[in-house]
Amino acid sequence: MDELTDAAFATLTAKIARDRGFGCASYKDKCLRRRIAVRMRARGVHTYADYAKVLDADGAEYDKLLDALTINVTKLFRNWETYAAIAEKVVPALWAQNGPIRVWSAGCSSGEEPYSLAALFHRHAEKVGQPGQLAQRVSVLGSDIDARSLEAAERGHFEEADFADTPPDLRQRYFAPTAPFTIVPEVKRLVRFERRDLLAQDPPPGPHQLIVCRNVLIYFDRETQERLFDKYHQALAPGGFLVLGKVETLLGAARTRFASVDGRERIFRPL
Ligand SMILES: C[S@@+](CC[C@H](N)C(=O)[O-])C[C@H]1O[C@@H](n2cnc3c(N)ncnc32)[C@H](O)[C@@H]1O
Question: Is the distance from CB of 109 to CB of 150 less than 8 angstroms?
Fold first, then answer.
């Protein structure tokens, strides 16, 4: 009997969801299978049932599996072109509204994205001679399902490789010059972190003037993506913005509920 059947896979993913609260059912199967296969190879097991036994016997393997499933790859100012578009089209527009600017980086991994966004607002406030308004107006929430990534995010320490997409002037202005390349306190204090499962049924935090959800939706099935677009639409204040990852786009009803601000950089406004 083939032990890599759909039924065996479903039994394993149901177990993972039950044991660790990771809602496998909403992720694309292909993606999950590929990542589970990597862990099975690492442990030299060939069937889903045997891998389930390894998970029961070894909590550390469970942690490694969840690490593999959550895919935490990120960078400061990842895809700089997108941040350049945010700096040009989103930051000044929100600043000009003169109200609170609540930013949500949903699926923030180890914090590179929320810190990069906070730095853009900081730079703009200095440029327009209003840095004194930052603490009162700008708050950036970084949320993720992965507690270990959030611990790293709270530290705000970075490695050389994190800076691959960072323009030199921003690196120099906002990060310590030597390892561990700490983010400066005036930006760090604008950001807070929270563990949050995007698949949970609770209402989204909000209202937000800017929601950035990049390189997270691609792992979810279509129905889940549509549900999240709905959630983001509800959570956005009028005049707010939504930014997706480069390979992500609006689906279903969301296509008529948002207008494109920058198609290439995946920036939208709720209608
Ligand atoms: C590839 S990272 C993206 C990081 C950042 N947004 C970027 O684009 O550089 C994907 C993140 O989504 C998080 N994630 C996956 N499933 C999630 C869920 N159900 N709820 C919240 N975060 C989730 C992962 O833990 C991971 O940190």
Answer: no
pLDDT of residue 127: 98
- Distance separating alpha carbons of residues 98 and 119, to the nearest angstrom: 18
ω into residue 92 within 30 of 0, thus cis?
A: no
Among 97, 181, 196, smallest CA distance to 138 is for 97
To test the pocket of ligand 1, the residue of 145, 191, 210 to mutate (highest count of ligand atoms within 8 Å of its CB) is 145
Q: Between the CA of residue 46 and those of 66, 205, 250, what are the distances in Å?
A: 19, 42, 38
Q: What is the pLDDT of residue 71?
A: 87
138: closest CA among 171, 179, 91? Answer: 91
pLDDT > 50? residue 1: no
pTM more than 0.90: yes
Burial grade of 91 (CB within 10 A; 0-12, 13-18, 19 or more): buried
Per-residue pLDDT averaged across 152-168, rounded? 97
Please, which residues bridge with residue 220 across strands? 27
Q: Which atom of ligand 1 is nearest to the CA of 220?
A: 16
| CB contact set of 60 (below 8 Å; sequence gap of 6+) | none
